[in-house]
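User: Before I run my own analysis I want an independent prediction to cross-check against. Here's the chain; please return only the structure tokens and, at the end, one sentence I can use as a sanity check.
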Amino acid sequence: MDRRKNIVTAGLATLVSALALTVGGVAAPAQAAPSARLGVDCDGRVHHNNPDHGIVGCKNNTAGTITFRAEIVCGRAPDVSGQWVTLRPGQYGESSGVCAFYSSGVGSVGWTIK
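Assistant: Structure tokens:
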């Protein structure tokens, strides 16, 4: 009986940890401020139906062309970078990445602008 209780407790602990990582990775406030100063508005999030899929959407509010990509931190798997996306002034675009099937899900979503 104790063995079964320990298995259930371990399973609940794993679920709670995975949910905490997913919820914690939805926003990227640390990167929002530097991007805003550059004239680019970006938002990182986890796909609502797939916890292994991270997405970044950016709008170019500058007078020049910018290029960005998603940087996805994956739990228990290598991190993933999305495709480079080039935006002209006023354009919006998205970059995304999917963690490996054995990952514990997206830990955080960020972006790189060049």
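Sanity check: The mean pLDDT is 79.
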